[in-house]
Amino acid sequence: MTKSTKRCVLALDQGTTSSRAILFDETGQPLATEQETFPQHVRTMEMGADGGGVDQAIVEHDPEDLWRTQIGCASRCLSEAGVRPEEVAAIGITNQRETTILWDRATGKPVAPAIVWQSRVSAPICERLKGDGLEPEVRRRTGLLIDPYFSATKIMHLFEKHSGLRGRCERGDVLFGTVDSFLIWRLTGGRVHATDVTNASRTLLFDITTGQWSDELLEIFNVPRAMLPQVRPSSGIFGEVDDGWLGASIPIAGCAGDQQSSAFAHGCVEAGDAKTTYGTGAFLLESTGTKPVLDAKGLLATPGCSLGPGPALKSYCLEGSVFVAGALVGWLREGLGLIERSSDIEPLARSVSDAGGVVLVPALAGLGTPHWDPFARGLIVGLTRSTEKSHIARAALDAIALSVAEVLSCLEVSSGHRLPRLRVDGGACVNDLLMQIQADVLGVPVDRPAVLETTALGAGLLAGLATDFYPSTAAVSQARSIEKTFHPQIDESQRQQRLDQWRDAVGRCRGWARPALG
Predict the structure, then answer these.
(1) Residues 345-388 pLDDT 10s
(2) CA dihedral defined by 118, 323, 286, 279, rounded to 10 degrees?
(3) Sequence-distant (≥ 6) Cβ neighbours of residue 121 within 8 angstroms
(4) pTM
(5) Rounded CA gap, 367 and 460, in Å?
(6) Residue 492's CB: how many other CB atoms inside 10 A?
(7) C-alpha pair distances (Å), 61 with each of 40, 107, 249, 416, 514
(8) Which sign does the torsion angle of CA 50, 158, 209, 303 carry?
(9) What is the reported pLDDT for 287?
(10) H-helix or E-strand containing 257?
């Protein structure tokens, strides 16, 4: 195989609170990084009679903010590194999953705000569908549950809210996509409407056993096929960037949802390999090999990255989702004013030896795995007159780690074996105290890699493999080296006590605002 003469690959990492662009060299090391935050629009809305009069969190983005920040980061990243556009072998895209965007085919303009994966706006729709007994069929085909988290019920909500929108979608005048599809459409000047298998699998419309959009699911959710993107392998040529955006027609050759992209970069391909990414939420993926596990209690079955060619899916994972992780630190900063910067939480939490009996359950967007309760509400218990903000900060770090431990327990039960160690990545894993707490409550070592931008690295790998910039994933073994391992420092009885306190607190917040049916 002839070695590429290009200098690097460019990864576009479009997240829930910021957009990033990272250039990676031939060894998988980052050359330059650019990042820009954008507004997240959060409010509550009275859901009406069918929602039991219960307020639900509405979380939206302006799609133009996603595009503006992402293309801006890409341009500045090339400039910072002194890399000419023609020296970029390929672009890989990774993105927040499930977030739903509808846009006009002719103009490319969004027809509504993007409904973010965190949004609970379609909770009443989900309750109706589950009440109709549709969840077993949906789970059998998708590996998912009927929950506001996923895209299909967000589309249904937009149809209910905007008169005539469904008719425009039936005619193909309005298109649907997760964030990756929207970026690919914009980057290619509207020439390509496509997604990859990992993003398609998070819509509730994609059959993960056949690797295709499902007519049965489209009927259940009343979604027109004409609005859907073409589904392609995660590694392969999607199209070329219009040279007016970055100065050259660079191929888009990789695309994957953020969690599968991270797992791919970690090398989680053998059954039993597992990783956790700490971002806005925390997401655990464990490889299950070549077959999906569709009946794991509280967990989701999801495809891993597909290297193609063709639609066949060759790897699957079990996934557990914690909706609020890094977002909890943001809430302490912006909502409560306990800290000025996110980095302040570690020294504040270190100023006390423990949380002083305080337990915080961060159900700010309901609960994900294993409860899947959109009506749960966050709570803080164990407060006393001596409780200080340092105890709240410590309890917040405990909450992130204990949420992950609860999910990992489900993974172990479903897989039938105890994981020997956990691989981690994401912005919050720079917090040494959080990683130590995580090792303590898991009772296994936690490995932090030298390259923390693992999600972006996965996208770069997928793009580089498709264009022969990387001859194999082994070519970036240096990027997979471990920077630090955190070993458990508490005994089993202490660990169990903390887990028991956590389970008790979680039980208190369940179904807090569930509407009465009928």
Answers:
(1) 999 999 999 999 999 999 988 888 888 887 888 999 999 999 99
(2) 90
(3) 45, 56, 57, 58, 115, 148, 154, 157
(4) 0.85
(5) 32
(6) 9
(7) 5, 19, 28, 40, 26
(8) negative
(9) 87
(10) strand 251-257
